[in-house]
Design a protein that fits this description.
heterodimer, A: about 400 residues, Rossmann fold, 2 domains, 7-stranded mixed β-sheet, 5-stranded parallel β-sheet, globular, B: about 300 residues, mainly alpha, ABC transporter involved in vitamin B12 uptake, BtuC, two-stranded antiparallel ribbon, 11 helices
């Protein structure tokens, strides 16, 4: 994966020489539909860095099937209506060969339908909702990141090990991802023997949670689970600390709640937070260490989080599947993607054929002194859960 | 009877006090907006972005080592010439055309988009947060309240009083009110109307910047933060009466109290449609708001 001078010189020579010809030098267009504005901009930025780093490395070592990867960006604003319009534009005007980058689960589901209509494949590297590879699965949609069920399994396993029983209060943003993530953890938690103390949902982008704390306090929970993300999570945590709501309470949440993008703004209020993730920059492997360093250089100092790492891994899956099939034509590529195993900074991932969900080892991580440490590990087979997809 | 007192003390009062803190924040935003609309007749769609600029200038100054308390005075002072320049160079040229409202609305809307992206480019999309210099909370009559929110209530009150004194008790304020009442007459009496216009716009947006500074420790600073309060600020201004300071304050307190108390009985999410419903009713029944026009309120 690391480029060396000879290969780069050779590749540039070939590109320059074939500048006049059409077929082999035609770049493969990857459409990236991701939030470049709004409350999830921080996530879109990680996606962008991960994809660009992978594209650079792949292009430097010859591209995919001899063709260079070109990324075309559109701002999805984390809004399914906007995302479908921009997806149509990417498919029909820009004629992209593959689409990725969708963050909001609502957007991924909506864009998946657009992809089906345009007979093109897409993959999400961020969306958590189990429905994407479950009840609402699509033959044209793939997911390389861990979904809510897998994260919940890892987190519930850690929590069970930490305490035998507890009252859990659930809070989340009021849309597909927020509600689904909470529902999934609730199932994992209640089946591990924990009690539900109550739940409440706030609108995406909510700035003041103090109106919600009355209900939370009345329930007297031992554990608070939240699926907030991005800036909403920063405000929730700092306000919980302000009001003393999180005192004496174990705060846990989804993998997207506390990430390198917002942990600095959270400061002390994030101490002790535990979550289940598919990636941590601390994973002790040579591949991950190399990836983290390259990412830091490309992002001017920011560590990769799960979004950056999963986005990075996606393009290598694309390369592996395309080269196995010898083509990027939709049906051939789909067959090739199903069942492919490929190397990522997290280890080996396998794309499950039954529902297009990637299987991977999971970790429970805790915030200590402003950064994450790994608390425990769950093997991929245990975490991936049932194949709920009935469509194909 | 004891149960009712208990309820009032521990649930209702704490919710109302919290609503007051939020109200202080909203009123600070609405003040600038009502002044600008009341005098200049300019619908400032970029008001939220000046709030954001205030927050980011604060972060920049904190990064340079300036004390937070100094910034509370320094940031609005820095924004004054900025607002003055924008008014003179951008708004005044289009001001005297017939469809002023549409033109200024479009202009300020464009400014808001430009500012948002500029902030994102200069500062990055990640949220920033200045340290809260008044951490912890205190018990007031049995109600637990974070110290910083109590400070906000006091600061909000002080700012409203200061602005009111400025508009109603100083020469500058008299000139502002006369220019709002009758521009041509005031001009022929020697009031430097163009200067007053620019100065008032500067005052309005520096109030927005000041809110950005004061609210940054609890609401964080990020490029699209302007959207947080702008809808609520416009609602308060409309319900209170365009141009009326008393109206903005009273409507601000009223609407945030309604929101806070309603949150006890219905999901907090539904309190926003409730507030907008009230705004619609006010527009239907009394379109000039509860307290009418500037120069009279």
């Amino acid at each position: 994966m690391k480029p060396n001078l000879k290969t780069m010189a050779l590749a540039s020579g070939i590109i320059l020489a074939s500048a006049g010809t059409v077929d082999a030098a035609d770049p493969i267009k990857i459409g990236v539909l991701t939030p470049l504005s709004g409350t999830y901009t921080v996530i879109g930025q990680q996606v962008k860095w991960g994809l660009e780093l992978a594209a650079r490395e792949i292009n430097a070592s010859g591209g995919v099937l001899g063709r260079q990867l070109v990324l075309t960006y559109e701002d999805s604003e984390a809004n399914p209506a906007v995302a479908t319009q921009k997806a149509e534009k990417l498919f029909q005007v820009e004629k992209v060969d593959f689409l990725t980058g969708t963050v909001s689960s609502g957007a991924t589901l909506a864009v998946g339908q657009v992809a089906e209509r345009n007979d093109t494949l897409m993959a999400t590297t961020v969306s958590f909702s189990s429905a994407i590879t479950g009840s609402k699965c699509s033959p044209n949609v793939f997911r390389v990141n861990a979904h809510a069920g897998m994260q919940a399994a890892a987190l519930a396993a850690w929590l069970k090990q930490d305490r035998a029983s507890a009252k859990v209060y659930f809070m989340g943003p009021d849309y597909e991802m927020g509600r689904n993530t909470v529902a999934v953890f609730k199932t994992a938690a209640t089946s591990s023997g924990f009690d539900e103390a109550g739940e409440v949902y706030a609108p995406l982008g909510n700035k003041d949670y103090s109106n919600f704390f009355g209900q939370v306090r009345a329930a007297r929970p031992d554990v608070i689970y939240t699926s907030m993300a991005g800036n909403d999570a920063v405000r929730l945590f700092t306000q919980m600390q302000e009001y003393g709501v999180s005192k004496g309470v174990q705060v846990v949440g989804s993998a997207g709640t506390v990430t390198p993008a917002n942990i600095e703004a959270m400061g002390e209020s994030a101490e002790g937070f535990v979550t289940g993730v598919g990636y941590s920059p601390l994973i002790d492997s040579a591949e991950n260490k190399a990836f983290v360093e390259a990412f830091r250089k490309a992002s001017e100092g920011t560590d990769p989080d799960l979004y950056g790492a999963d986005s990075y891994g996606l393009l290598f899956l694309y390369k592996a599947a395309a080269e196995k099939a010898g083509s990027i034509e939709t049906d051939k590529l789909r067959k090739s993607l199903e069942g492919t195993e490929w190397q990522t900074p997290q280890g080996t991932k396998k794309m499950r054929a039954g529902d297009h969900q990637a299987e991977m080892p999971m970790y429970a991580v805790r915030v200590e002194n402003g950064s994450f440490t790994i608390a425990s590990k769950v093997p991929g087979g245990d975490a991936i859960g049932k194949d709920d997809c009935e469509r194909f | 009877m004891e149960q009712i007192i208990d309820y009032i003390q521990f649930v209702l009062a704490s919710q109302m006090l919290n609503g007051l803190a939020i109200g202080a924040a909203v009123i600070m935003m609405a003040l600038g907006l009502t002044i600008i609309f009341g005098l200049l007749d300019v619908i400032n769609m970029a008001h939220g972005e000046f709030y954001a600029i205030g927050g980011f200038v604060l972060m920049a100054l904190l990064g340079l080592g300036v004390n937070f308390w100094v910034c509370i005075a320094l940031v609005p002072a820095l924004l004054l010439p900025f607002g003055y320049a924008i008014e003179r160079t951008l708004i005044q040229p289009i001001f005297h055309k017939g469809d002023r409202h549409i033109l200024t609305l479009l202009l300020t809307f464009g400014l808001s988009i430009i500012f948002q992206d500029l902030l994102k480019i200069i500062f990055g999309p990640n949220p920033l947060r200045p340290e809260n210099l008044l951490p912890g909370g205190s018990e007031i009559f049995g109600i637990f309240m974070p110290n910083y929110r109590l400070f906000l209530i006091v600061a909000g009150g002080a700012i409203v009083a200061a602005v009111w004194a400025l508009i109603y008790k100083t020469n500058f304020g008299a000139m502002v009110r006369s220019a709002a009442f009758d521009k041509n007459m005031a001009g022929s009496l020697g009031v430097p109307v163009r200067l007053i216009y620019a100065g008032t716009f500067a005052l309005g947006i520096s109030l927005a910047g000041l809110s950005g500074v004061l609210l940054a420790p609890i609401y964080t600073v990020f490029p699209t933060m302007g959207h947080d309060f702008i809808l609520m600020a416009f609602t308060v201004v409309i319900v209170g009466g365009l141009g009326s300071i008393t109206g903005a304050v009273l409507a601000g307190i009223l609407l945030t109290q309604i929101q806070a108390i309603a949150s006890l009985y219905i999901s907090p999410v539904w309190t926003e449609p409730l507030i907008f419903g009230i705004m619609v009713m006010v527009l239907v029944v009394k379109p000039q708001g509860l307290f009418g026009k500037f120069g009279h309120g």
